[in-house]
Design goal:
10 helices, 25% strand, four-stranded antiparallel β-sheet, five-stranded mixed β-sheet, flat, Nucleotidyltransferase, domain 5, alpha+beta, 314 residues, Translation, Eukaryotic Peptide Chain Release Factor Subunit 1, Chain A, 60s Ribosomal Protein L30, Chain: A, single chain
Length: 314
């Protein structure tokens, strides 16, 4: 799947680049689905966009029909569709992952770029956080990340001690933040006796939980950043260790000279950095920075320092 990264730089001004994951669907079903999408595309108001999307859907439909000599053939592929069609056939492990995590049999997205990072995350990111979903006395233990979710077990909780016991089982192998959410009389007991747990006293989505997790990680990055900026104002600090400037000039030159130890960078600039720096050179600590609220340390960093600061080796 790494070959798909070659297409990350393709970009269009309108959301007319089509990304598909199709798995465990018969060829005949896909053809019917695409015919329906072609009919829907007729309702697009922008004539240029309508023409492009219609032509690309038609081309994909024709491609699938012509490359499968049997309507019963099962399709397991990623398709990137622009002026040509790129097909990546899923291997056995990738198909198994799609099934295990209940990935939609047909995922379709039109955008200004192909959704390659999403594909790579779906099939190759197996770093998970854990969440306990409580509904009265029913507990569902989940593992999840940004794009995947799996119910590990479902347990009836008869008392607070049983819930604490289940938490301890997870804690033996997992030391990170644990999320407990839902509606149950047992939640208050957790609040009193446990640390490194985030309680949400309502039902929330996987996306909400993961956003909260990323915010907690970002708060830790804020602490690191604040320490660096405080040191910057200390008269005893060697200012030559700090590198500021533009991504394509000072920062690029420092990375290529192998003198960067840490890089604090506004999160949205990381992809831009990777466009002109070979990823093999990014063998140092990168600390993404994103503002969580107006006036926080990240907001100051982005406004006053252009969201970029490198630290040299001592």
């Amino acid at each position: 799947m790494i070959i798909l990264k070659d297409y990350k730089q393709i970009e269009e001004s309108t959301d007319t680049l089509l990304s598909f994951i199709i798995h465990n669907k018969k060829c005949s079903d896909i053809i019917k689905y695409l015919e329906d999408q072609i009919n829907r595309a007729k309702n697009i108001s922008n004539p240029t966009k309508k023409h492009k999307i219609n032509n690309r859907l038609f081309a994909l439909n024709k491609y699938i029909f012509e490359t499968n000599n049997n309507e019963e053939n099962i399709i397991n592929s990623i398709f990137l569709v622009h002026d040509k069609i790129i097909e990546y056939k899923l291997n056995k492990e990738e198909i198994s992952t799609a099934l295990k995590y209940n990935i939609l049999n047909i995922f379709q997205k039109s955008d200004t770029k192909f959704h390659i990072d999403y594909f790579i995350d779906i099939f190759y990111n197996f770093q998970f956080i854990y969440a306990f979903r409580l509904n009265k006395n029913e507990l569902i233990i989940k593992e999840l990340n940004k794009n995947k979710e799996l119910d590990l077990s479902k347990i009836v909780i008869s008392n607070e001690n049983k819930l604490l016991e289940e938490i301890e089982k997870i804690r033996k192998t997992y030391k990170d933040i644990l999320f407990i959410y839902g509606l149950s009389p047992f939640i208050n007991k957790i609040e009193q006796e446990n640390k490194n747990i985030i309680l949400i006293k309502e039902f929330v989505s996987k996306e909400n939980i993961y956003d909260l997790y990323e915010n907690e990680l970002m708060k830790k990055n804020h602490i690191l950043l604040e320490k660096r900026l405080i040191d910057l104002k200390n008269e005893k600090t060697n200012l030559d260790l700090y590198i500021f400037g533009k991504l394509k000039i000072e920062i690029k030159e420092s990375i290529e000279a192998y003198i960067v130890k840490e890089l604090y960078i506004e999160e949205k600039k990381i992809d831009k950095l990777k466009l002109f720096i070979d990823e093999s050179l990014l063998n140092f600590k990168i600390i993404p920075i994103k503002s969580l609220e107006n006036g926080d340390i990240a907001d100051i960093f982005i406004k006053d320092y252009n969201g970029i600061m490198a630290i040299k080796y001592y």
